[in-house]
Amino acid sequence: MGKNVYITGGTGFIGSALVDHFVHSGCFVYVHTRHPQKYSNKNLLKYVSSPKEIDRKIDLLVNLSGKPLATRWSVKSKAEIYQSRVQFTRTLAREFAAIPQFAPTKVLSASAIGYYQAGEETHTEHSDKGDSFSAKLCKDWEEAAREFKELGSSLTILRLGVVLNPNGGSLKAMLPSFKLGLGAKLGKGQQWFSWISLQDVIEIIRYCSDQAELPDALNVVSPNAVRNAEFTTLLAQSLRRPAILTAPTAVLKLALGEGAEDFLLANLRVSPAYLMSAGFEFNHPILKDYFEKTFRSSRKKTAED
Prior knowledge:
This protein has ten helices and 15 strands. It has helices at 13-24, 75-97, 133-145, 169-179, 198-210, 228-238, 249-256, 258-264, 273-277, 287-304, and strands spanning 4-8, 28-32, 45-48, 60-63, 106-112, 122-123, 154-160, 162-164, 184-186, 192-193, 195-197, 217-220, 226-227, 245-247, 269-270. It has a seven-stranded parallel sheet with strand order 3-2-1-4-5-7-12, sandwiched between helices. Strands 6-15 form a two-stranded parallel sheet. The model has no long low-confidence stretch (mean pLDDT 94).
C-alpha cells in the first residue's frame, strides 16, 4: 500500500511534478491549496485548504509553500515572502498539533541555499549561515519547521538551489530571450550558480521518503556548480544561439531592488555533500549534458518542421 502524503505548494512548479510522482507511485496525496474548489479530486488525490480536512495519518509531509522570489523586493514584498514561508510553516505545524493522531511521521521542509554566506567558499550542510535577508528568511523558515519535531515527526530541511526545467521556473522565463539571441550574463557573470534539474529534485525527495535516517538538513543541488557566465554560454550554445550581452548590475538593482544582490547576483557555491557521501546518483550532474539532452529533441523537431 502506498504512503499517505501531504504536499504544500503542490500546484506550483516543483509541487505539481511531485504530486504526479506520488500519485503514479500509488500514494494517496493531499494537496494543500488556498483554493481547493479550483481543482478536481480524484481517486488518490484530494485538494484541501487545511490539515483539518484530512481523515488519515500522514506518512510524509513535503512542505514546498512559498511566494516566488523573482519579484522586486520592497518592504511589502519581503513581508509577503516571509509570511508565505515562515508564518505559513508555523501555522501548518500548529494545525497538525490540533490533530495529533494524523500528524506526519516524516517531514521534508523546503529551505534554500540562500541560507549560506555569499562568497567563493564551497558550502556543505555544516557551513555557517549568512547575514543577508535570504539567510535570515531561511533560518527562520527552518526554525518554524522544527515545530514538527514537537509532534514526534522526523524532520529534514531541503536547501534547494535553482531548479531547472524548460516547462517552469527560472529556465522557462529565460528561454524566450535566449531563443532570440538576447541571452545575457548577469552583472560580471563571475558569481557561482548552484543548480539542479527538476528530475533530480523529485528523485531526491523520493530517496528521502524511503530513508529511515536522514540528517537535519541537506543541500539539494547538483555536484557541479557553474559561474553565471558559463551558465549563459552553455544555455545559448545548446539552443544554437549567440549570447554576447550583459545585464548590468545597476539595471538589475533598479528592476529588483535588494533582490538583485541577494537573489539574482548571489555568489553561492554549494555542494550536495551528504547526498554524495550517501552514494546518491544524480541523473543530471553536468550542466552542459543536461542542456544538450533537454534541448536536443526540440532542435530535432524544429529541423523536421
